[in-house]
Design brief:
Helices cover about 45% and strands about 20% of the residues. With about 170 residues, the chain is of the alpha+beta class.
């Protein structure tokens, strides 16, 4: 039997008042680690067991702070709940009296924008959000049509392929 998956389009909200937030770069690994730690601390070993190996950040855009997270269908609501309880990224858990993260952690919140059953639909949603954000920056407040979404989606995949080739 195959594992059925859900894809969550999410937005990372960094708190701009923090001094170290601009110095440290947030990576997909930091996001995934924060979500896994939140699942572990809120649902324990029993709740975290089916999630820890199958969760994956499929895409992360640093400019807009949008990412796509893959998780099992049976427990995507637990992942969603754990993501809303995330308060910081990038620090390690301290064992002292502070009871929280160390000072290198970046304070952030995560919100889920959409849940879908296929990565294709989730990708189109992410591209739609990115096109809408680009239009707002240009002063264009119109909704993107299907043709411009497909063109942006094609450009998105070409950029991913070229970065993967250069990385090899």
């Amino acid at each position: 039997m195959r594992v059925r998956l859900r894809y969550l389009t999410c937005k990372l909200h960094l708190r701009p008042h923090q001094e170290g937030a601009l110095k440290k770069k947030v990576t997909a690994f930091d996001i995934l680690r924060a979500i896994k730690e939140s699942v572990q601390s809120n649902f324990g070993n029993f709740g975290a067991a089916p999630l820890l190996l199958s969760m994956q950040v499929r895409y992360y855009d640093e400019a807009t702070q949008i990412f796509i997270l893959r998780c099992p269908r049976d427990s995507f609501r637990s992942v969603w709940a754990a993501m809303t309880l995330v308060t910081s990224l990038g620090g390690s858990i301290t064992s002292g009296n502070s009871g929280g993260r160390d000072s290198s952690a970046i304070k952030a919140n995560i919100s889920v924008l959409r849940v879908s059953g296929s990565v294709r639909t989730c990708r189109l949603d992410a591209v739609s959000i990115l096109v809408r954000a680009a239009n707002e920056l240009e002063g264009n407040n119109r909704r993107p049509d299907q043709e411009s979404l497909m063109a942006a989606s094609t450009a998105f995949y070409q950029a991913q392929i070229s970065s993967a080739i250069q990385g090899v």
